Amino acid sequence: MTAFPSLYDALALIAIGGLAGFINVLSAGGSMLTLPLLMFLGLPAQVANGTNRVSIVFQSLSAVGNFRRAGASQVGLSLRLAVPSVIGSLLGVWLALQVSDALFEAVLVTVMAASALMMLLPQPQLETRPLTRERLTPLVYLAMFAIGIYGGFIQVGVGVLFIVVLYRLLKIDLAQVNVFKVFIILIYTLPALALFLYHDQVRWSYGLLLAVGSMSGAWLAVRVNMGPRGALWVRWLTLAVIGAIIVRLVVG
Q1: Is position 46 within any domain?
Q2: Ramachandran bin of 42, using left for φ above 0, alpha for ψ from -120 to 50, beta for the remaining angles
Q3: Range of the domain at 244
Q4: I need a labelling partner for 167 at 20 to 30 A (CA). Which of 62, 175, 176, 234 fits?
């Protein structure tokens, strides 16, 4: 592995990063594309995992900034939701060190299948009132903590859980849910990236090229999300991602 990717590899990082950024902002699962790419280009698994966080941070920053400029910003409420997720993730990391890879996959398939069923349930009666902190009940905070545990434990598909749980518990439309999701994932990822940096598990040249593509994909996804059919895009793309994750795990 060289310190800097070749021109061909750089173009692949930007292109796949763009697709992953679009998928991650509208739904989840873009890391299923970027992590294998980084490993294919020669990065060890842990270094690929750390380097991928660079892209996630920048695409999340891009999405949060574009949502804010579009008038869809809920910083205060998003921070409240992010705190229990970050705390839960610390417990999840500890749990991940205690179990086998086989249990990882079993938990992931189970959670993704349950998420698909929840997405296919009839749409809840959505609230028309503005979302305020009074509607963030203890159950909502507990759910954010639980998702944080899952994210620290496995990480793959964690955005799906944020979408499903916030949609069902807060009863806001999926386009609004995505505004919260990208901000929470930004806060959630920063400590992880810092930890990988501390252990020298990040290759900036690869991560920044991936980030160039992912920020472009995030920019496009925000515009789709804010469009008149944004919620429909989120619903069906999320179901497609869940199906892809399950198939990938079952067929190996």
Answers
A1: yes
A2: left
A3: 7-251
A4: 62
User: Total domain count for the chain?
Assistant: 1
Q: How far is CA 24 from CA 18, 33, 68, 163, 203, in A?
A: 10, 11, 18, 11, 21
Query: How far does CA 218 lie from the centroid of its chain?
Result: 12
Q: What is the mean pLDDT of residues 59-79?
A: 83
Of 11, 89, 35, give the one whose Cα is nearest residue 245. Answer: 35
Q: Is 2 contained in some domain?
A: no
Q: Which residues of 44-70 are buried (b: 16+ CB within 10 A; e: fewer)?
A: eeebbbbbbbbbbbbbbbbbbebbeee
DSSP output for 156-225:
TTHHHHHHHHHHHHH---HHHHHHHHHHHHHHHHHHHHHHHHHTT---HHHHHHHHHHHHHHHHHHHHHH
| Per-residue pLDDT tens digits for 214-251 | 999 888 888 877 766 666 666 676 677 667 766 765 67
Is 183 part of a structural domain of the chain?
Answer: yes
Q: Is this prediction's pTM over 0.70?
A: yes
pLDDT in tens, 155-201: 667 777 888 888 888 888 777 888 888 888 888 888 878 878 888 88
